[in-house]
Amino acid sequence: GHDYMPILVWNIFLGMATTAAVMAATRLWFGTAAGIAAGLLCAVWPTQVQFTTILASELPYNLFAMAGVLAWITRGSGIGKWVACGVCFAVASYIRPVGLLLPVVLGGADVLAGRRGWREAGLGSVVSLAVMAALIAPWAWRNTQLFGQFVLISTNGGTNLWMGNNSQADGAYMPLPHEGQEGMDEAEREAHLKEEALRFIRENPGQFARLVARRVYLFYRTETIGVGWNEQGLLATGLGGAITPLKAASVGFWYLALFCGIAGAVLLFREEGFFQALFHPAMLLWLYYMSVHAVVVSGARYHFPVIPLIASLGGLALARGWVRWFPPKTASPGIP
Fold first, then answer.
1. Of 255, 259, 267, whose CA–CA distance to 319 is shortest?
2. Distance of CA 253 to the CA centre of its chain
3. Buried (b) or exposed (e) across 125-164, using 16+ Cβ within 10 A?
4. Beta carbons within 8 Å of 288's beta carbon, 6+ residues apart
5. Which of 142, 241, 160 has the alpha carbon at shortest distance from 198?
6. How far is residue 161's CA from residue 33's CA, in Å, rounded to a whole number?
7. Closest to 86 in 3D by CA, of 42, 126, 33
């Protein structure tokens, strides 16, 4: 029925589970103190709290993507570990297809950074991808039967590419055109818009480069979407006056957390060296998500998958800062 309570309960569970996954992954990467700090960042992150009352893809994607990452970095190399990774990444990919390449990104990073040999990392990637293929195959078959052509998960890849790459594009979301698409189904429209976008890129490389820079800017510019999507509810309950202060608090926290994440990344590069840091899962996945939206369409909601990674690196910076600014007291001579 028309009841928001199941959505609220579900999103609270997603938020708690994601926070736990971020804490566990950060502890494995950077130690217990950093894990606690990362968990605190996640727990009080305004936009994640605001999304509790919204039924959207952001919270469930982050949980299953981080659960897969946690399974990947946990010690062990048995088949069960890679199967668990494949299950988590398959669910994440159903929610957002950007999750499809996660086993490849993580496997490649392990090999390049020397954390795993190519056989072990290759086995993990292959098993994970095989499990993902088995779990996604029924939906792909349904799509093929429906559209008369192979469609793996969704028909929004070409449309998102077109949104970010056309003569009217400014890098952000824009309505889809209707002219010239009469009689097309979703898959046909997808192919048509993809070809239009690729043609624009080929013919306008300079403008494409400017749009890439614009999309990177939009990726980080602000974080008010959680308040914006709750505006109707706030107005309906007489809390319209809180909209602007809530947006200001959300943006302020976003910039503070981003600063902590960047500081953590700098520490990572200083402590582990350029090559090891670049291919660290937290760093590489952050760059991966940003790179995807630097090419297609960008905006505040599209940086949601990097929130756990920023929190993790921010936890590293906060933990190191705490030790530096508040060093542990040492016992005086003669006092046990």
1. 267
2. 18
3. bebbbebbeebbeeeeeebeeeeeeebbbbbbbbbbbbbb
4. 101, 105
5. 160
6. 41
7. 126
Cβ–Cβ < 8 Å for 61, 236 = no
- 63-81, pLDDT tens digit by residue? 999 999 999 999 877 899 9
> Could you read off the pLDDT of 303-319 as tens digits, one per residue?
999 999 999 999 999 99
Kindly list the distances between the CA atom of residue 92 and the CA atoms of 126, 133, 288, 305, in Å, as whole numbers in the listed order: 17, 13, 15, 11
**Residue 10 class from Cβ within 10 Å (0-12 exposed, 13-18 middle, 19+ buried)?**
middle
Could you tell me which residues come within 8 angstroms of residue 297 by beta carbon, excluding any fewer than 6 positions away?
160, 161, 163, 164, 171, 172, 173, 174, 215
Q: Which two tokens stand for residue 219?
A: 């990726």
From its phi and psi, is residue 74 left (phi > 0), alpha (psi between -120 and 50) or beta? Answer: beta
SS3 call for 195 = helix
| Residue carrying the six token digits 């894990």 | 35
Indicate the DSSP class of residue 328: P
What Rg, from alpha-carbon coordinates, does the chain have? 22
Among the listed residues 53, 15, 46, the one whose alpha carbon sits nearest the alpha carbon of residue 250: 46
- One-letter amino acid at 271 equals E
Residue with tokens 């940003």: 290
289 Ramachandran zone, left/alpha/beta (phi>0; psi -120 to 50): alpha
Cβ atoms of 215 and 163 closer than 8 Å: no
User: What is the rounded CA–CA span in Å between residue 222 and residue 301?
Assistant: 10
Residue 185's SS3 state is coil
* Contacting residues for 84 by C-beta, under 8 A, at least 6 apart: 68, 71
Whether the predicted model's global pTM rises above the 0.90 cut: yes
Token pair 């398959």 in the structure block, residue: 90
Helices 5-30, 281-295: crossing angle, 10 deg rounding: 130
> For residue 106, what are the CA distances in angstroms to 110, 200, 282?
6, 32, 10
pLDDT at 302 over 50: yes
